[in-house]
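Pipeline run #58 for the internal structure catalog. This entry was flagged by the ingest filter as a single-chain record with no existing model, so it goes straight to prediction. Upstream metadata was stripped on purpose; only the residue string is passed forward. Reviewer on rotation: M.T. Logging verbosity set to normal.
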Amino acid sequence: MARSCELARAGSPLKRVLEIGTGCGYQAAVLSRIAKEVYSIERIGTLLSGARIRLRSLKYHNVRVKHGDGSEALDSLFPLDAIVIAAGSSALPEHLIKLLVPQGRLIIPLGSTKQYLTEVIKLESGYEVKKHEEVSFVPFLSGVVVK
């Protein structure tokens, strides 16, 4: 998680960041220290409830959490400086790259047999992909789970 945050920041201040996969809220808390605004989406309701309570009790006021499907278009959050995905995918979610500012970064564990932490940098036209170290994350799933 720390490496994902490091790659997302890339040595520059962050204004608005989207995290897909809130989990316990740890990465959202770390992101809140390096970004002005953090939006985090979790598909599993019980995980989100726990994270929401934890983040509020620790007074992370710049983190907004939402129960939802991170694979859907999230145009209302545009423009984003970074998107950090905490679940592995075999395909690059290109629709999310459109939400980034130029030079914005999408960080995702990418690969089918082996996953690699992948940094996607949005360019004026297109994007650049940088493969980093091998990682192992839960699969990126669509849909929401109430409980």
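catalog note: The chain has one domain: 2-128.
catalog note: The first helix runs from residue 2 to 9.
status: ready for reviewer M.T.
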